[in-house]
Design a protein that fits this description.
single chain, 211 residues, mainly alpha, 2 domains, elongated
């Protein structure tokens, strides 16, 4: 029996050069991790898919060592070599990640009291945000909606009903005065400061391809 051939490196490297095969493997593996979790990491999917779509996927090979013909071929190929999802499914996941009503229908309220209100928090060294989700942090739409669900149940129910076009609008209705619309540049800088070294490389590669 002819043995399957693959010249892919066994592991990707998030610290490799953004144009390298090792980095392409890393991005593909991160995209797969987001897509195939029990609960799909929608925001993570969007981050990594954008990089792969700009030609990064063409650096990757199938199990038999052949090249991917096109984006659809890459998407439909079973993971870990491809993404194991149709392009349409992936686009739907990304679209839903931007929709506050969709997020509100899937989240659960925060159980841990917020630190800084005179109540106990989880303590230093017990954060639950992993590397893939680091860009989200405490300012992600999901986190903010979970806070609304915990502290402003009436507003949360209106958000689930589709009454608000954005999380910020729901927060204003809840009377959260600290909410302030940031410029796009401020938002990008804020996220970059929270990003890991490998995530910054991912973003830099995307900017290079889209500049």
């Amino acid at each position: 029996m002819k043995q399957a051939v693959s010249n892919l490196p066994p592991f990707g490297d998030g610290g490799a050069h953004p144009d390298s095969v090792e980095y392409a493997v890393y991005i593909r593996d991160q995209a797969n991790a987001c897509l195939h979790k029990r609960k799909v990491d929608q925001e993570g999917v969007e981050l990594y898919i954008k990089v792969l779509q700009k030609g990064m996927f063409t650096k990757l090979l199938k199990r038999d060592g052949s090249s991917f013909r096109n984006w659809t071929d890459f998407c439909l190929t079973e993971h870990p070599y491809g993404l194991g999802r149709s392009p349409q499914d992936i686009e739907t996941i990304i679209t839903e990640a931007r929709d506050p009503q969709t997020i509100a229908l899937s989240v659960v309220p925060l159980n841990q009291p917020e630190i800084g209100n005179g109540k106990a928090g989880p303590g230093r060294g017990h954060k639950t945000v992993d590397n893939v989700n680091r860009l989200k942090g405490g300012n992600s739409a999901e986190y903010r909606i979970r806070k609304l669900a915990r502290d402003h149940e009436d507003i949360y129910e209106r958000l689930k009903a589709g009454e608000f076009q954005s999380v910020a609008a729901a927060e204003r209705a809840a009377g959260i005065q600290k909410v302030k619309e940031k410029s796009l540049v401020d938002q990008i800088i804020f996220l970059l400061e929270k990003a890991s070294r490998s995530e910054r490389k991912t973003i830099a590669a995307w900017i290079k391809d889209n500049a």
